[in-house]
Structures are given as structure tokens and as C-alpha cells.
Design a protein that fits this description.
With about 300 residues, the chain is mostly helical. It has eleven helices and three strands; from the N terminus they run H-H-H-H-H-H-H-H-H-H-E-E-E-H.
């Protein structure tokens, strides 16, 4: 039944994409702003700011997941399946990721670098005005690989573990990390709980995603890059995902990038040649193959569980 819900949710996402109007995360974003205005105080001590951020995380991520679990315990049969599929559909963003990535690939392949830069700015936080013909596809492939883990793999895996409440918990926690998990003066302490808990929730999914990228591409190169390069990355989860994904594609990622006017050097990930515009499509195909592999494993586990004499 879990695999059926996953297939239905992926089909809904492929057919409809993210809701164009009345997306629940838009309302959630407004709620985050209001809760932050109540809890965050610049004059508070670091300890109090950390505690306030943790309370905000409990209210905005843990409490909705708990309420959903309580609601689902009273449902059964078709209504339960329908709600589970709907929640999972709203938690994943596979089609949206592909649409944004292709919006970069099309102008790059047509030689329109300014349009590609504008499209890249929609999916990355770095400065894009000076990206060259190598930097634009590199940034996009990095986004596909990392968000393939955060926005597709992780919610699917958490759904398999704990159903819609677990998937919702991850999605809301990931959104809070995107809002509060910055190492800036404003969020250094208040956002620490959101950043650490997001790292915790993504630790296992990121490594399973990295393994799936390797199995769906070039496994020896993926494992080698993961082992030697991932520890150098700033993020404990993005490192394995992007290193393995780049190795599976046999391309190089990382290097210089500008954030808020300052150039930062990130460790080189992957192997082989520099990223090219055509690699954006290859990265999307790698993600789809990885999802298909994971789904096949899930089906096999479910069948084995049902046929087990101990069940």
C-alpha cells in the first residue's frame, strides 16, 4: 500500500505540478513570519534565542505533524489513502524542480546566457549576474542533485517510514531551515535548532539518495567521490549527495561562487570534465532513475513483508 501511495503521489506531481494558487506552503510562510515576530528578539542571550527557535520549530513543524497523525488515526480505507496521497503530493517537488532546471537548459542550449542567468536565480541563492557558460549549468546541476534529495527523496523515504505525518514533518522542517537556517547575525542562534534538526532528518535520506545516484549512474566513481570529497563540503548532507551525483555523471561541480557580493571557494566535487548545458538533462534523468530504483526496492520489501510467515 505504501508503494501504491508513492506512485499515485508521483503521478499527481507529474500531472499537476505544484499548485499555482493557494499553495499550503505560502500560507505556512506567512505563519512562519508571524511566529518569528513573536519569538525572536535581537537583545536576548544566545541561549534564549536558541530556545526560542526550538519552540518555534515545535510549533511550526512538530505540532502540525502530530495533529495530522491524530486526524489520520480516525480514518480508514479509501479516505485514509486519499489523504495520505494528497499530503505526500504536496510534500514533493519533482516536477517543479525539473521545470526550473529546464528553464535554465533551454536558453543555455540556444546561446542566451542572460536569460539562463535569470532562470538560475530562481533556484539558487548565489549571485548569478556574472555566471559564465560553465557556471550556469554547474549551479543548476548542483541544485538538481541537492534538491532531488531534499524535495523528492527525503519526503518519499520519510513517508515509507511514518506515512504522511513523517513526510509532512520533514517538509515543514526543511522549509524552516530555508527560512531560519542561515549563519548570519540575525539567525545564528535563533535558527540553530531549525538547521540542526533539518540536518538530522536528512542524514539518512541524503546517504540513501547518494547511493541511489551511484547505482543509477557510475557506481565506482560515485562511491570514490563520496568517500574522498564529501567530508570537505560545508553541509554534512549536501556533500555526499552532490559528490556522489557528480561522480555518477562524471562531471565536476563546486569551485568559486559569489554570495551577497563575496566570492567563496567551495571544494571540487565529482570527476571528469566541467559541467555543460546538456548535463542538466542528464542530472534530471539520473534523479528519475534513482527514484525508480528506490521504488523497486520498496515494492520488493513490501512483497517480502506480506509473504513473511512472521506477519
Amino acid at each position: 500500500m505504501i508503494s501504491l501511495c508513492v506512485v499515485l503521489a508521483l503521478a499527481l506531481d507529474a500531472l499537476l505540478g505544484e499548485p499555482r494558487r493557494w499553495h499550503p506552503l505560502v500560507g505556512f510562510g506567512h505563519l512562519v513570519t508571524r511566529v518569528e515576530a513573536v519569538l525572536r528578539r535581537d537583545g536576548h542571550s544566545p541561549r534564549r534565542q536558541i530556545a526560542a527557535g526550538f519552540v518555534g520549530w515545535l510549533l511550526l513543524a512538530a505540532l502540525p505533524a502530530l495533529l495530522l497523525w491524530w486526524l489520520l488515526t480516525g480514518l480508514g480505507g479509501s479516505p485514509l489513502v486519499a489523504v495520505e496521497v494528497l499530503i505526500l503530493y504536496l510534500c514533493i517537488g519533482n516536477r517543479s524542480l525539473a521545470e526550473h532546471a529546464r528553464a535554465v537548459a533551454r536558453p543555455l542550449l540556444a546561446g542566451d546566457l542572460p536569460a539562463a542567468r535569470r532562470a538560475v536565480a530562481m533556484i539558487v541563492s548565489r549571485d548569478t549576474a556574472a555566471l559564465d557558460v560553465s557556471g550556469a549549468p554547474r549551479a543548476t546541476v548542483e541544485s538538481v542533485l541537492e534538491n532531488g534529495s531534499d524535495a523528492v527523496f527525503a519526503p518519499l523515504l520519510w513517508f515509507a517510514v511514518g506515512g504522511a505525518p513523517a513526510a509532512l514533518l520533514h517538509r515543514l522542517a526543511n522549509t524552516l531551515d530555508a527560512r531560519w537556517g542561515y549563519r548570519s547575525e540575525k539567525y545564528l542562534y535563533f535558527g540553530r535548532a531549525a538547521a540542526r534538526l533539518d540536518d538530522l532528518l536528512n542524514w539518512i535520506p541524503a546517504r540513501l539518495c547518494a547511493l541511489a545516484y551511484g547505482l543509477a549512474g557510475r557506481l565506482p566513481a560515485a562511491l570514490g567521490c563520496w568517500r574522498t570529497q564529501a567530508p570537505q563540503a560545508a553541509s554534512p548532507n549536501a556533500g555526499p549527495v552532490m559528490a556522489a551525483g557528480a561522480g555518477a555523471l562524471r562531471i565536476r561541480l563546486g569551485g568559486p561562487a559569489r554570495y551577497r557580493g563575496r566570492e567563496e571557494w567551495r571544494p571540487e566535487l565529482g570527476c571528469g570534465r566541467d559541467a555543460e548545458p546538456a548535463d542538466i538533462g542528464r542530472a534530471l534523468e539520473l534523479l528519475w532513475r534513482a527514484i525508480a530504483l528506490w521504488l523497486a526496492v520498496l515494492v520488493c520489501v513490501e512483497l517480502s513483508w506480506r509473504n513473511s510467515p512472521w506477519v
